[in-house]
Design brief:
mainly beta; 210 residues; elongated; 5-stranded antiparallel sheet
Length: 210
């Protein structure tokens, strides 16, 4: 079932008027995030239509809001546990929390090199992958801390400290109910798990092959 947007169509210039979600064409869709209240958000970055955040309610009605001017090149979207939205900005090397028309940088003094994968954990912690550094970074209270990788591109470290491990093009992220972090280790064709409680990393599936 097509949930939103139209295929192979010229993107529409969004308007403020609510519309049926699967009617307009969406340009440059770069992220999707769902909240427990049933709202689904789409982030759009298109040279044709600009940067927009689309809110689809449980009835299938979509509303559009202009993204904060401080966000330039969004690459991912996630929902925090408090219902606020998070997005990465590849050009600025930042993660932003979006609240209404405001955008708050979560690591204003540090940043993340080429951020992509994004996920929210318990207690307001946010995790993001760095493609440039082949690492996973924890953002908490304005501080960025590497919790895995940043040791060059490769595959190593299973069963040991995640900070001593090697990753290769880490892409997507997810956090389970126990607070463990899962990272798609792109060029290693595997899924790896980081346990923040122990600091250890293991491979859940796949290992260096298609």
């Amino acid at each position: 079932v097509r949930f939103a947007g139209l295929q192979d169509m010229i993107p529409d210039i969004p308007t403020d008027a609510p519309t049926v979600a699967n009617k307009p064409a969406i340009g440059g869709l770069v992220g999707v995030a769902a909240r427990p209240d049933g709202h689904t958000f789409l982030i759009e970055g298109s040279k044709t239509s600009g940067l927009y955040l689309r809110d689809v309610d449980p009835s299938g009605t979509m509303k559009v809001v202009k993204l904060h001017a401080g966000i330039i090149v969004p690459t991912a979207l996630a929902a925090d546990l408090d219902g606020s939205l998070l997005t990465t900005d590849a050009l600025l090397g930042q993660v932003f929390r979006i609240k209404g028309n405001e955008a708050e940088a979560l690591a204003p003094d540090a940043g993340v090199a080429q951020p992509l994968g994004l996920a929210a954990g318990p207690g307001g912690v946010v995790y993001v992958t760095s493609l440039k550094d082949n690492s996973v970074v924890k953002l908490e209270n304005g501080t960025a801390t590497v919790i895995a990788g940043n040791n060059g591109e490769g595959f190593s470290g299973d069963g040991g400290p995640a900070t001593a491990a090697k990753l290769a093009y880490p892409i997507g992220l997810a956090v389970d109910a126990a607070g463990r972090v899962y990272v798609a280790d792109g060029r290693n064709e595997g899924l790896r798990r980081i346990d923040p409680a122990t600091g250890l990393i293991t491979t859940v599936c796949g290992q260096g092959g298609l």
